[in-house]
Amino acid sequence: MRTYPIPFNEVQRSAAVQNVPGLTRENHDVFDNLCRATAALLDCPIAHISVVEEDKQWYKSVVGIDLSDMPKDNSFCTLTIMSDSPMVITDLSKDPKFSEHPMVAEGGPQARFYAGVPLVLSSGYRFGSLCALDLVPHEMPSDQLLVVLEHLGKYVVAALEKAPAAPAVTEDEHGHSTFLNLVGHELRTPLTIVNGGLKLLEHRIEDDVVKQLAKSSIKSTDHLAKLIDSILKFSDVSTGELQLNEQNTDLGALLTNLVETHATALADAHKSIEVTNLSTSRPVLLDPEHINICVTSLLLNSVLHGGDTVELSCTHDAKGHIEIHVIDDGNIDEHVELAELYKPFIIGGDVERRGTRGGLGLGLPLTRKLVELHGGEFEVRSEVDRTVACIRLPKWRELN
Q1: Can you say whether residue 270 is alpha, beta or left, with left for phi > 0 and alpha for psi between -120 and 50 degrees?
Q2: Which stretches make up the Histidine kinase domain (predicted)?
């Protein structure tokens, strides 16, 4: 399984990395000096400036060790660039994200301490990190030291971009920002009214079936309101970036709630759903709204395109990774190309064939990108007399 997350805007980010004039293999003393300052600041023997490209990581500067290009599976910096804040791991061997990492486990250099800050271009795209490494654990650095580390990271970017003036905000960017604010307001207002009206109706309805319909509708409007808030709060319109709002989540309760929310839609479509296994008893670190979107997409895809029976399960694979399966007894249409699903924002097959039985549905490319943002994998398999959609999340996300 892949060991690194993929940024939501990876295609645009990778293109931006290629277009920075100073981001070449040729090194300069200024970058070595910034690495030496970083190593001294955090009392580490090793420091480097990494550049994270689409399939590998290379180094603008390295001090204290010889490093050549490495695959992203061997990179800590692929996680550093996923946040605005410094990433500090005081003992990599005790962190479930890294304990089996080839740079940490026995047989490798056995790195123990890591502290890095994302390097962000003036355009807003993250291209790499400035970080320090040690082969022994450290105490957590003070906030003051981390602030200095962040400033050193900004000096790296300034040196690469030759300290350009802060880019002026264009009318178009102002327009995007205004548009998002207006959209947020215009969506929230009717949702609030609809939600309130449904709750009033729920208390006045005596018919049990209609009351259940009202409850399902209330849950759907609540879900949509949270989704809108999440998108507006954790997205960047200028770069197409989306960040995770990670929380310790009861995944079993989340999945059970989704089944209850969509039970009416399944019943109306004359389909049944069976929850066969929810084996995650411990909290899972994830963005609950994103996983909501993913599983909802898979359930609705089964309602629209699948067979008569839908099965939902949450188990572990042989290596301990979390697997969420949505299985239905339908077959994928011969016109649907599964390989197309794994291309960036490509729909699996001809849009004109969305109504075919067992089709992929329009939400699945988005599901793939959200799962990859979690460092996970998403696949759809066509098996004998059934279709299997699998969300696989790395095992370190399940907390001890």
Answers
A1: left
A2: 182-397
